[in-house]
Amino acid sequence: MGGGLAAGALQGLRVIEMGQLIAGPFCGKTLGEFGADVIKIEAPDGGDPLRSWRLVKEGTSVWWQVQSRNKRSLALDLRQPQGQEIARLLIAEADVLIENFRPGTLESWGMSPDEIHALNPGLVILRISGYGQTGPYRDLPGFGAIGEAMGGLRHLTGEPGRAPVRVGVSLGDTLAALHGTIGVLMALYHRNVHGGPGQVIDVALHEAVFNVMESLIPEYSAFGAVREAAGSALPGIAPSNAYPCQDGWVLVAGNGDSIFKRLMGAIGRQDLGDAPDLVGNAGRVARVDEIDTAIAAWTVVHTVQQVMDILAAARVPAGKVYTAKDIAEDPHYRARDMMLPQVTRDGYTVEVPGIVPKLSATPGSIRSSAPHLGDDTDTVLAEAGLTTEQIGLLRTKGVIR
């Protein structure tokens, strides 16, 4: 389906995914793209809610087509003791377990880490939750948006003096998933290379956000400085901002010393480029309003493309603010296989994002499209040793679908 079909770097890895929506499943998606066999356990009565989130085509969310590619769907009721027994049977033969339930859920099913490791000592268990598995907030409900708020991100988004705004995507969930993926790979390396035991990876949504907050806390610790929202500007680094054009906006990053001189030459403000006090960043920060005004006065009389062309010739980093349409039509995205056609199990073709990161010898790939609920139930259970009669009885009891 695109992206290359070489053997994946994680070929032979068995992953059981119990999570739903975004954080846990995004980790499963990433592992699956690089060859892992990801078995997604879903509730028989509707499955993962992401199946119906946002825009729906042929009864299924197109977001689902990205998030669940390269996965197999097992419709299994984990609330029933027989469902829990089957889960334990699968976990006993797996390398990785992913879950993003509220802390204590696995324990209530008789699947605490200690109980699971008694079955499978080498299992790597990834647990993603709002506040982590310990601490005074562990039992509070937490979504990605709350993690973004507690992690410090929401306070910095938006315009000064106005309400904090959402980044536009579920960034808190995705950051937690990426940290979880890193943790899984490190734990597998420790197990496979150093002979270590399986271990538990505890990822809290707010901590994953907090981990990318740069100098937020050192600045507060050293100076008592509380960083505030600054709109599109990059506080303390100048010039770096969004500037208006005749037909849109362009981002310009002229904050390198030599880049700043070239930028000022390109916009006809060599006086600023030659000013002794603007040679370094500290001086430019002191006069940032003046510099931003000068850049905006130049961009506003040009189109976005004119600005891009002029600044590219001057070797000044600049970027158009892309919409989905811009991305879909951009030749660079297509040249790097970042727009791939995927045939869904409903028979239509939809373009989806390509694979990141790009590995030279074992690139990721789309081996299978996102499954319908329970598509792989019989196959997965047969692989686990259940007979046709046993599978039929479980279906009759509503344990599977």
In one word, what is the shape?
A: elongated
CATH class of the largest domain: Alpha Beta
- Protein structure class: alpha/beta
Biggest sheet overview: 6 strands, parallel
How many DSSP E strands? 13
Unreliably modeled segments: none
**Portion of residues within helices:** 25-40%
Radius of gyration of CA atoms, rounded to a whole number: 25 Å
User: How many domains make up the 3D coordinates?
Assistant: 2
CATH H-level superfamily title of the largest domain: Crotonobetainyl-coa:carnitine coa-transferase, domain 1
Strand content: 5-15%
Strand order of the largest sheet: 5-2-1-6-7-8
The residue-averaged pLDDT reads 96
User: Tally the helices: what do you get?
Assistant: 19
User: Which fold name fills CATH's third level, the topology of the largest domain?
Assistant: Rossmann fold
Ends: how far apart? 28 Å
Q: Brief overview, please?
A:
This protein has 401 residues and is α/β, with parallel strands linked by helices. 39% of the residues lie in helices and 15% in strands. It has 19 helices and 13 strands.
Protein described:
Keywords: Transferase. This is CoA transferase. Pfam families: CoA_transf_3. GO terms for molecular function: transferase activity. With 401 residues, this protein is an alpha/beta fold. The chain folds into two domains: 14-212 and 332-396, Rossmann fold (3-Layer(aba) Sandwich), CATH 3.40.50; 240-322, formyl-coa transferase, domain 3 (2-Layer Sandwich), CATH 3.30.1540. It contains 19 helices and 13 strands. The chain has helices spanning 23-33, 62-67, 81-91, 105-108, 113-119, 144-150, 153-156, 171-194, 205-210, 216-223, 257-266, 270-273, 281-286, 288-299, 304-313, 324-329, 331-335, 377-383, 388-396; strands at 14-17, 37-42, 56-57, 60-61, 71-75, 96-99, 124-129, 200-204, 240-245, 248-253, 318-320, 339-343, 349-353. The strands form four sheets. Strands 5-2-1-6-7-8 form a six-stranded parallel beta sheet, with helices on both faces. The longest helix has 24 residues, at 171-194. The radius of gyration is 25 Å and the shape is elongated. The protein starts with 13 loop residues before the first strand and ends in a 5-residue tail after the last helix. The mean pLDDT is 96.
